[in-house]
Design brief:
The protein has 608 residues and is an alpha/beta fold. The protein folds into 3 domains: 3-240, Glutamine Phosphoribosylpyrophosphate, subunit 1, domain 1 (4-Layer Sandwich); 251-449, Glucose-6-phosphate isomerase like protein, domain 1 (Rossmann fold); 452-590, Rossmann fold (3-Layer(aba) Sandwich), CATH 3.40.50.10490. The chain has 19 helices and 27 strands. Strands 3-2-4-1-10-9-11-15 form an 8-stranded antiparallel sheet, with helices on one face. Strands 5-6-7-8-12-13-14 form a 7-stranded antiparallel sheet. A 5-stranded parallel sheet has the order 19-18-20-21-22, sandwiched between helices. The chain is globular, with a radius of gyration of 25 Å. The structure holds 2-deoxy-2-amino glucitol-6-phosphate. 2-deoxy-2-amino glucitol-6-phosphate binds next to helix 9.
Length: 608
């Protein structure tokens, strides 16, 4: 998704804009650009389709500047091209924009009638020219013009704005798309996320919905409507090393390697006397005695983490739990209200569909809980309660450590729910917590140590055109995540299937040499899984099995078998998902794919 950076201060802004944009590359982009004031206070734009290096090449004369804004674009309206890249503007102003202006066509028509012409196909240029109209033609102040312009827009925006006649000010505004203001020494920033400015500062203000801000080198003023607002200064507890590759070939493999410590950090502060304790989150597990149903709503990998939690709610806490895709949730007339608890799981805390699902759930009277990685993100702030995962920044588009900490944290939460509902005694709970906190991270680390062995299975997978993941119960949910991971970074078509459902149609696609990755970590389902695997190999499939250490599976059942380390079977999902992530990683690497920046994908999906 698009990225925004802005710098104003004593140093050369160009350096900080490029550094910031580079740090935001992980969000996904197809073009980039900057606008800056030069030493004579003239306003310039430099923009180009493709990689950031194309912008840098156009800056070869190394201009000196102390104020500028920059943008990485992920095309929505208009193809990736130099002219469609941001910033957009007029002689009087430049803007960079994240989000979508839904009513741009009618405003464009209106502005054309007023004599404006347009060079790009973007919705952003329409916003820029509307702002120009209020500023230059109606002669409103900068603040009033921004207020007026945004009041006309339908959609979502995070905006960075420079006015040609005020070279010492960056303006910004937010609705629907995240934007922060970084506070440094003798310098300030705007950014779409904290990773862009971590090298310079960890202190920031989070802009709230509808707010407009004026940022100078040493002041920040924020308005909500006519009134100025005092904002709390937040401090990110992430350091710059956490947001850098640190010697790893890709962020994805670095983040897989961080899983054991991320799980421990996330769980450690929520365990007291060997039992779950969410007092430091001000979350009362007593709510699980009152609610009649839990709904987990999320997207992509976070939704898959919810599926693992659903199984645990049923088996441990005996509490019905539905898992819903956030983009479908509000269009399916969800039957929720008082007595329901809606849990939104999100790494970024900014996913537009998940945020919309949260708002709808609150409207309908359900209690809401956010499981979120980014402190101060929209979902975290709007939910009734929040429990933060502590994975540190996740930069790779393919989510890995976030899933591990989400599932581990949800499992701890379910143990708490089971206890409070009288379904689990303290001793049993304590031994489950020990296995989760002590053994699970070790088991994950053991699989990471076997990276080479796992990678050696991927050469033949890399040649596949189509691939199937199968499993039953929790293993089917793992299969969904394994398949998603492979698709997004290797571009191999793959499907996750409930193993028992294959013969109801899909088995017709299993032909000679088709790879089938079979998950087999649930002991009670192992025998049935072996039958399902044999159904596929009998039709020529080449099977790779991932199973528990002692699964009774004969060596001739599959071409390859990866046995997990010893761990309680209900927690086998943790080392198993690490194997699936490593398979996706090494398969994509064998195909020469751009692993951290897969095509067409963005890290944080802040539009519907
Ligand atoms: C996973 O690898 C993804 N790239 C994607 O499915 C992601 O999990 C989804 O977009 C949800 O994001 P969130 O956790 O930030 O809400």
């Amino acid at each position: 998704m698009c990225g925004i950076i802005g710098y104003i201060g004593k140093e050369n802004s160009i350096k900080h804009l490029i550094e910031g944009l580079r740090a935001l590359e992980y969000r996904g982009y197809d073009s980039a650009g900057i606008a800056y004031f030069d030493e004579n206070n003239s306003l310039h734009s430099v923009k180009a389709a493709g990689r950031l290096a194309n912008v840098e090449a156009k800056l070869a004369d190394k201009p000196v500047s102390h104020c500028g804004i920059g943008h990485t674009r992920w095309a929505t309206h208009g193809a990736p091209s130099d002219v469609n890249s941001h910033p957009h503007g007029t002689a009087s102003l430049r803007i960079v924009h994240n989000g979508i202006v839904e009513n741009y066509a009618s405003i464009r028509e209106e502005l054309t009638g007023l004599g404006y012409t347009f060079e790009s196909d973007t919705d952003t240029e329409v916003a820029a020219k509307l702002l120009d109209y209020y500023y230059k033609e109606e002669k409103l102040t900068a603040h009033a013009a921004i207020e007026r312009m945004t009041s006309r827009l339908v959609g979502s925006w995070a905006l960075g704005i420079l006015f040609a006649d005020t070279p010492n000010v960056i303006w910004c505004a937010r609705k629907g798309s995240p934007l922060i203001i970084g506070v440094g020494e003798d310098e300030n920033f705007i950014a779409s996320d904290i990773t862009a400015i971590l090298k310079r500062t960890r202190n920031y203000y989070q802009l709230d919905e509808g707010e407009i801000a004026k940022v100078t080198r040493d002041t920040v003023t924020v308005w909500q409507g006519e009134k100025t607002v005092e904002k709390p200064l937040l401090t990110a507890d992430w350091d710059i090393e956490a947001a850098e590759r640190g010697g790893f070939a890709h962020f994805m493999i670095k983040e897989i390697n961080e899983e054991p410590s991320a799980i421990r950090t996330t769980l450690g502060c929520r365990i007291k006397n060997g039992l779950p304790d969410f007092a430091s989150d001000a979350f009362d597990v007593g709510i699980f005695k009152k609610v009649t149903r839990v709904h987990i709503v999320a997207c992509g990998t976070a939704m898959h983490a919810g599926l693992i939690a659903k199984g645990a709610f049923a088996s441990l806490a005996k509490l019905p739990c539905e898992v819903e895709i956030a983009s479908e949730f509000r269009y399916n007339d969800p039957l929720i209200g008082e007595g329901d608890l809606v849990i939104i799981i999100s790494q970024s805390g900014e996913t537009a569909d998940s945020l919309a699902a949260l708002r709808l759930s609150k409207e309908k009277g359900a209690a809401t809980l956010a499981i979120v990685n980014v402190i101060g993100s929209s979902i975290a702030r709007e939910a009734d309660s929040v429990i933060y995962t502590m994975a540190g920044p996740e930069i790779a588009v393919a989510s890995t450590k976030a899933y591990s900490v989400q599932t581990a944290l949800m499992y701890l939460l379910v143990i708490g729910a089971a206890m409070t509902r009288g379904k689990l005694d303290a001793d049993s709970a304590r031994s489950k917590v020990t296995e989760l906190y002590e053994r699970a991270p070790e088991a994950v680390a053991e699989m990471i140590a076997r990276e080479n062995e796992i990678g050696s299975h991927c050469k033949w997978l890399a040649e596949a055109e189509d691939l199937f993941y199968i499993g039953r119960g929790a293993d089917y949910h793992l299969a969904c995540e394994g398949s998603l991971k492979l698709k997004e970074i290797s571009y191999i078509h793959s499907e996750a299937y409930a193993a028992g459902e294959l013969k109801h149609g899909t088995i017709s696609l299993i032909t000679e040499g088709v790879p089938v990755i079979a998950l087999c970590t649930v002991p009670s389902l192992c025998e049935k899984m072996v039958s399902n695997i044999r159904e596929t190999t009998a039709r020529g499939a080449k099977a790779l099995i991932i199973c528990s250490h002692d699964a009774e599976i004969a060596d001739d059942t599959a071409s390859h078998i990866i046995r997990l380390p010893k761990i309680a079977s209900e927690l086998a999902f943790l080392p198993a998902v690490t194997v699936l992530q490593l398979i996706a990683y090494h398969t994509a690497a064998a195909r020469g794919c751009d692993i951290d920046k897969p095509r067409n994908l963005a890290k944080s999906v802040t539009v519907e």
